[in-house]
Amino acid sequence: MRLFTFEKAGKPTIGLLRTPAAQEYIDLEIAGYEFCHDMVALLSQPDWRDSLDAILEEEPLQAIKPVANVKFLPLVQNPGKIICVGLNYADHAKEGGHAIPEHPSFFLRVNSSQIAHQQPMKVPKASAKLDYEAELAVVVGKQARHLTLDNALDCVAGYSCYNDGSVRDYQRKGTQWTLGKNFDATGSFGPWLVTKDELPPGGDGLKIQTRLNGQTLQDGNTSNFLFDVKTVLKIVSECMTLEPGDVIITGTPAGVGYARTPPIFMKAGDICEIEIEKIGVLLNTISNE
Amino acid sequence: MRLLRFKTPDGHPALGARIGDEVINLTELGCPGTLDELLRHGAAGMASAKAAIEKATKRLPLSSVQLLPPIHHPHKAFAIGLNYVDHAHEGNFTPPTQPVLFHRFPTSWVAHGVPIERPKASHEFDYEGEIVAIIGKAGKYITKEKALDHVAGYSIFNDGSIRDFQFRSSQWMWGKNFDRSGGFGPEFITADEVPAGMVGMNIETRLNGQVMQKANTRDMIFDVATLVVACSEGMELHPGDMIITGTPAGVGFARKPPVFMKAGDVCEVVVEGLGTLSNPIINEA
Q: Do A107 and B171 lie within an 8 Å CB cutoff?
């Protein structure tokens, strides 16, 4: 099952894709589903999956619309938390001159830094060093604290793509990366949530790529995580309660722009695509603030 | 004005104004239910709160209400690391030349009087007394001259930190976001009640009555105006956004021997002009 958030008459609405390659979706508002405007509210319903399966089966004809004209919104617009894992692929840690870490590093993004599939990502006035980072996003579907490796994946609703756009000079201004990771309109999230039943456990073994203007610049596989999804969930839930709609962005493989010789940064007119196998392509044009 | 968010004796959340030992329920008089929303209404919001205070005929005893954190759900809650030279030195850090930002989630703090929690995962639970500046007017690329116009007021924060987790990696976020590990309040004080930028105010943290941190905000490396500039570069600040401005020397982990908070302790942060934020410590259930 694939769910996405889109704008309809100025209001966020949730759509349900019928099949992975579907050209049509079911508008959950027209289909009469109560929690159709907010992904956090939808995922907070203990029976959301059963309700949506019933709607899929029913095929409400009046609610079926073409995907082609949809204006996407960030998959989860107002998650309680967006937690990012730094340096989670050995090759990426190495290209940035970091030692292979004993523990993961966590930072976070604020909601106001997020944009959606097909929306422009902004090169800020303050810097020309906007870089891409392809990441697998995990969306939480159930409240959880103190998870174990055995039960950690139970709290996952599904997976999506994230472009953790980073303003490199600001990221390195101090010891903490927060500043360079939270510029307005730099984090792209979507296009849709793929429920976990359609993917290998923990999103393991998926190819993950970045293409900038068609050129492949990152080409990794989630099987090379230093800390896999269940380990990250266990560690994060030791610290805080995970809630439905919380997002964990799992880190990027090697090939980022700033570590290249010569460095590559994104500029107005570029097109950046993040593709994760079995999930899809997250596409953004780049424009100036 | 001194505004606070509270639960009425019958359990409804409301916005209030404190006058001495009494509280006026502003929400009952037509004001919004949260400070976040009042701040979004800008000058008109503040004028409506003033007008409500003037026409109020009914007051509740402060002791009869349960306080909630002043801000309900900020877009951003930035915290500033190493903003006092002596605190940077006690942790063996070089004082920064640019403000160092990390972030706290609202799930990581509780109101004045509510217990803060030492987690199961660690006993290295440390206090950090700080002032917090709260944004009242949206802005991006704010200049230093205009910066304080964007600050609606101030409050007190205990930036409770789980030290072993904070220093497990280069990124401190992990040790700064344990559930209910920080304190925030007791109330919001409008900027006109205190010196511009809260400059020259004494700040003290006491653990079970013993003074552990004692400093003055004039010793901040980056003053409030500079922090507003730094936090608005490329990021639009919104009404209700928080800048938690950093802690002075005297934290527990840097003491010899180290001092950490444990169940039964009481931690107070006392800031001149802003009041006292007090939280008992309990173990995570």
A: yes
